[in-house]
Queue: 2 jobs
Job 1
Amino acid sequence: MPLARYTFKPGINKEGTSYSNEGNWFDADKIRFRAGRPEKIGGWVKKSVNSFLGSARKLHQWIGLDTDKFIGLGTHIKLYLLKGNAFYDITPVRATTTNGITFAATDGSSTITATDSDHKANKGDFVTIAGAASLGGLITAAVLNQEYEIASVTNVNVYTFIAKDTSGDTVTANSSDTGNGGAGVDGAYQINIGSDFYTSGFGFGSGNWGQSSWGGGINSFSTQLRLWTLDNFGEDLVANPRGGSIYYWDKTNGETTRAVDFSTLTNASDTPTIANQIIVSEIDRHIICMGCNPIGTTTQDPMQVRWSDQENAAQWTPKTNNTAGGLRLSSGSEIIGAVRTRQEILIFTDTALYSMQFIGPPFIFGINLITEGTSTVSPQAFINANNVVYFMDQDNFYIYSGSVQSLPCTVRAYVFEDFNYGQTFKVFATRNAQFNEVSWFYCSSTSEEIDRYVTYNYLEQTWSIGTLPRTSWIDAGGASSNPLAAGSSGTSSNFLYEHEVGSNDDGSAMTAFVESADFDAGDGNQFMHIQRLIPDVAFIGTDTEPELTYSIKTRDFPLGSLNTATTATVTNTTGVAYVRARARQMRVRIESTDVDNSWRLGDTRFDIKADGRR
């Protein structure tokens, strides 16, 4: 029997069964489709050898007027600035104590007990101590006067931390450590850390959450998933932890200075004290707060929109001679998120989609209802690509290009039938413009952290799927010529990765595969025998002996067990691979597990002959 050529349709199609999808690719990991052909995605390396604390839920990059390149990075623990290879801690300070902290140590213990009246700190928060004197023994002034993570909170006036030296090694007190640190001890308390997990029905607009002072100890602001929004106002950074205050980092003050509350800016007037998102309008340069407190109250209104005076981050009081203002949306109960697109800002509430446009005085901004009954699954589940907004809702994908339309998806059931709806707010969307792709990263049903992604090629209209632990992502541009993503290691120390670099997983082998749906051997009425295959593959990379594994999987009936009948190793010198398989239904899997190996598939030809009837 002559060689049979098998060509599979571009993209992954998991709608329906494997047998009903004959002629399609059915499964994949770390594969993209380009010009209709599957190929391995690019690899990644660490952007910086330095790690950061916490899971990064937001990245933002920009360039200063002096061409300095910056990356803002917000985690559930800290707010960082990356310049070059160095991370700078710019986490805002929520409160300071002057001459008000005393210490106590116990012989043989590294635990230091600190007393500070109404400290409002939570376990895991950070405090920087200054002005302390030695306790008399090994707990010296140098040991005390540094930043500490609070180990436990005894009550509103007392907490503990673990003593360390300037190298980070634990220090144990001795019998001479009987002092209290002196009378001049100061403390700078950073904003309460947030949670790394989302709690449904708690916080983010539920009940009266956020309506009292969120800076107090043991509060729902600090026990809900910490999501940041970051944007640049010129060469400065504006930042907002969802449900918290808004902050400003001024570049002219240098990388070693912290972001400050907007209320502390010079000539600040009626600045919002709490918000769910902050965004800078691109052309008219207003700072806009979503889900913030109205003027004259500290109570958060999840449907309130306010904006600053044009080109003025400090002035939020509407006057006849400025452009500050605000209004309240009516459809929905909470603003989930907003995204810039061409000459408008899209605002998602929990039940509707609005368009916000700059219209000039006297109203400044106009907001129009686009549609009801459509929302977004999370505050970051949307992305603008070529002035088209792609977004994920609870059970489908959509696009907005003047109107809302459903996005046909060949992996919809695969995504939403194995989806952790308890961690929806972790979902984020991103763009990879180099390959005309938008992707959504999400948690599968058995995972509490992001472990999967789904990718749509908007030029070729194909879908792909895969596994990758990433918590945030930004496309190339500004501070990086390649996409950047924050990795999740399952620990407090994580790294920022530069993607589409080489073909490896940070120097290690990256496993990638693509697998077809079942296809009949012949017409499905006879057992067929495969004895050889002719591979068609282009190897791309630096490996001098790249390898692909071709696996032939077989079964006799659609509901029968699937078995790997035979495998063959294909290299860049393989002309023909000899295999042996006999069945009524077959599928082919192509996989690589070696380093420095990228590849692109063409068509595969099989030598198949009849081998008996049913």
Job 2
Amino acid sequence: MNRTPHSSQTLGVSSEVPPASKAGSEPILPSRRKFIGKVGGATAAAWAASALGLSPLLNATKAKAAVLHSSNSVGGQARRAAAYQLRLQLAANQYNKPLPPQVNNGDEQLYYGSFIGQYSKALRHTTLGDPDPGSYKKFLAACHGGTESSFEACTLGGTVPLTCPQGGLAYELIGADNGAVTIPPAPTLASAERAGEMVENYWQALCRDVPFDQYGLEPLTQAAIADLNKLSDFRGPKVNGQVTAGTLFRGITGGELVGPYVSQFLMQPVNGLGDFSMRDPLGNPSQLYLSYVPGLDYMTDTASWLAVQNGQATVANKARTIFFAFGPNTYNATAGPLHDGRDVAGVVHTDELYQHPFWAACEMLGGGFPANPGNPYSATKTPNEIGFATWGGPMFTGLLGHVALQAISAVWYQKYYVHRPLRPEEYSGRVQNLVTGKNTYPLQSDVLNSAALQQVYSKYGTYYLPMAYPEGCPTHPSYGSGHTTVAAACVTILKALFNGATSFTSMGITPMYSPDGVNLQPYTGADVDQITVETELNKLASNIGIARNIAGVHWRSDYAQSMLLGEAVAVTFLQDMVHVFNEPGGSFQFNSFLGTPITINK
């Protein structure tokens, strides 16, 4: 287990030169950074306007969008003209923003021919599970071309299709277009950061059945904490430079280390769903979920792992885009509150797009949580009016669906048209082949020397990542995380609409946690009064994102960067949205995930 991988200069690198891509269609590779740095945003905009004939759009109006409301047009031609001018102005505002370069980590070019650093699930593979070069080249050509015919020409390894590769090419009509937001390059295959992320993934799998409130109090998580602290590059949260029981497997956002691991928006009753209330049979407040049976993990042997990589399915649930190689998960007989990693991994397996942020909105609306200070309706400002279609409940819940769709499209653009890195289950196949001497890969030694890898081998007899789902990860590239991006965008909307400083105790709500997945207990920690709408919304987004890591389908960097991507999508959406209202003085005021105050005015 102390093998040192060979230099990346001699492994997985083909002497074959990558084919020239169609002009303007390829993602920007690191080799083009210097060139991009010399081109200013104005010059790039001029080029695009010249090529696409968009100069009339840019010159349509110089007035600020807010001025268009001065006439208060109620109907007829005046309103139609005002709506048209507003659309032109908002489009011009978005167009004139600097266009960020879309840069991947360079592994696709570095290992061209072997493609060992790339996502390839559902394509054809070698007998070792590495990408089949011919199959991957067709996939790469399709990602450069972006047409239905090019994706239909891909050579798959089985019957499982790629998941919606054209989804990222949809255009957005409010907020930033998919190509105008970005995330930085993913960690490279050979990096210490990627090795550290893999060690965390192994530990998350090993600790799935440990209750959250037992972190640091039992042997598995104690070993995980010690092992993560030995890594040369680990980006998870720390206290005084150390991973602790209170930071283990938690997220990066402000206030996230406050209170129990599970957000109160995944624990408290949802009383705003009309006649339906989420309570247990005895009337106790809780959200109850059917959880997967403990101890049942998948893809820990070569035959099943390779079959899943090749997209060989025996059971299909196309409505949910899940294609099982070995049947669906097995559930416990009774539902209960969330209490461990396997529980939250199950929650994000078959959930709908923005299900949990929607429930959070319902909980706050039904519970009378105060609106954001920027809301223009109040007893003093508008004694004769209340918000409803605008600045009220229907707007609050309606915006979630809009921004969720925009967020999933934006991250799909990053997945297919910029980054395309391999998934954790694919990386673990490289570990298996390297340690057993079947092939060589430039993997950084932290993962090979980790206690996590020894624990996995002791339990399963192989080095594959034990997966929570029988089908493993979805059939689309890893970076970024769709679940995280959508959750982050929706949570940003909720923070912009509700008062984030409101504590649960001030609302008469006792924060709860579950020690055993059956019973609920009040949380009595010294920080109980610090549990606020903001901390729990931030935690909700992270719970959803990191649960996918615990399931084995995503990396920490997928989660962390997708939190920021989702937030960016929501912010640009709100920057346009704030101009559509007739009410004067409305604004959105909240803190970013990293604690920076944000105010969006007309």
